[in-house]
Write a structure and sequence with these properties.
- It is a single chain.
- This protein is mainly alpha-helical.
- It has a single domain (25-87, 95-116, 124-183), classed as Cobalamin adenosyltransferase-like (Hypothetical Protein Ta1238, Chain: A), CATH 1.20.1200.10.
- Helices cover 56% and strands 3% of the residues.
- A two-stranded antiparallel ribbon has the order 1-2.
- Helix 3 packs parallel to helix 5 (160-183) and helix 4 runs antiparallel to helix 5 (160-183).
Length: 201
């Protein structure tokens, strides 16, 4: 387990940050931007979990979703740790994203989809507070995936499993948002290409 001591170190005042192996890199490097966005995604998931908390005792679906989200946050920490470590600095037993993680997300998607009506149109992000936060997490996850694809084009040490995981996670976040909104009787608002602005008041 990592040992957190001092929060401020002053070592980043020159615009660099340290990788797990001790190498100093610019804070705006693509690798840092990528795992920073992974952390942003986890933060949005954390907001969704906070919004779920009042429902855990009374809504079985909320409790089930919270368990999936807790696991997803742990997996995102593993993914971020992987990205913060160059291949030569990895150690035996280091937590890494594996193909099983993407398979688990596919299982979660299938589980939730069984309870949802078929979707024939795009929907607006929103609904309940946890559902809206999950939509936000989904868009951040998509951005992390785009950054990761670019990083993999530049660095063949980044595993394809990380890309597959983010792809499946963004799908899961979309389905989970619909799943909790349905449980809370929140309607889905379909995109309309012909909508007009409200008339003058």
């Amino acid at each position: 387990m990592p040992k957190l001591t001092r929060i401020y170190t002053r070592t980043g005042d020159d615009g660099t940050t340290g990788l797990v192996g001790g190498q100093r890199v610019k804070k705006n490097a693509l690798r840092i931007e990528t795992y920073g966005t992974v952390d942003e995604c986890s933060s949005a998931i954390g907001m969704a979990r906070s919004a779920l908390r009042p429902l855990l005792a009374t809504h079985a679906r909320a409790a089930r979703l919270d368990a999936w989200l807790a696991w997803a946050q742990d997996a995102l920490f593993n993914l971020g740790s992987d990205l913060a470590t160059l291949p030569k600095d990895r150690w035996e037993g280091m937590p890494l994203i594996t193909p099983d993680d993407a398979v688990a997300l596919e299982r979660a998607i299938d589980e939730a989809q069984r309870d949802l009506p078929h979707l024939n149109n795009f929907i607006h992000p929103g609904g309940s507070l946890p559902g809206a936060y999950l939509h936000l997490a989904r868009t951040i996850c998509r951005r992390a995936e785009r950054l990761l694809i670019t990083l993999r084009e530049e660095d063949d040490g980044v595993s394809k499993e990380t890309q597959q995981f983010l792809n499946r996670l963004s799908d899961a976040l979309f389905v989970w948002s619909r799943w909790i909104n349905a449980d809370l009787n929140e309607p889905e608002y379909l995109w309309s290409s012909s909508s007009a602005p409200p008339p003058p008041s």
